[in-house]
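[audit] Reproducing an earlier prediction to check determinism. Same input, same settings, fresh worker. If the tokens differ from the archived copy the diff job will pick it up downstream; this log only records the rerun itself.
[audit] input (189 residues):
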Amino acid sequence: MPEPRTVLFLLLLCLTQNANADFSLDALMAQFSKTTYGNAQFREEKQMAVLETPLILEGTLSYRAPDYLRKEVQQPEHSLFEITGDLLRIETETEQQTLSLDTHPLIRAFAESYRATLSGDGVMLRQYFETELTGTLDNWTLRLLPKDDQVRSHIKVIFIMGSGNQIYSTKTVEVTGDFSVMTIEPDNE
């Protein structure tokens, strides 16, 4: 007869595996689909071969379901990236421009990695990426591999990490080896 500790360990292992079996991309998307808006502070560290030290960006993020996303960089210089529907507005200290996401597949895919996740749109997410979800609802990692050749020639992989319907970190790895890590602190509203 097995030891009581062994039986307890096996029982806990089976329970954990069953709990994780119920956690899928569709289950995570169902959590996010309940999100109508969100605001957060971010700190992004960009490691690039052309720079001796990482570039640090700080600012705010805003989301409104289903397709509004705003990234406002406050440090080191002010800039704004605002997506509404299929349009991206970029504003810096010296210029403003508006781009159609339809004519910029790389920007579209990058935008959809966030918007589709935040809106809980698994169909859209799978349209642009091969997806792999690991972890549990309390501590998950979503791995996104671009499907489009043009996007794949720039972005190797995007990792989105979170808990429940909150994203707390992202990591984007480019094919050059450059990467950025963003930590996100939701505003308490």
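[audit] rerun output stored. Observation attached for the diff report: Helices lie at 4-21, 25-32, 105-119, 122-128, 149-152.
[audit] end
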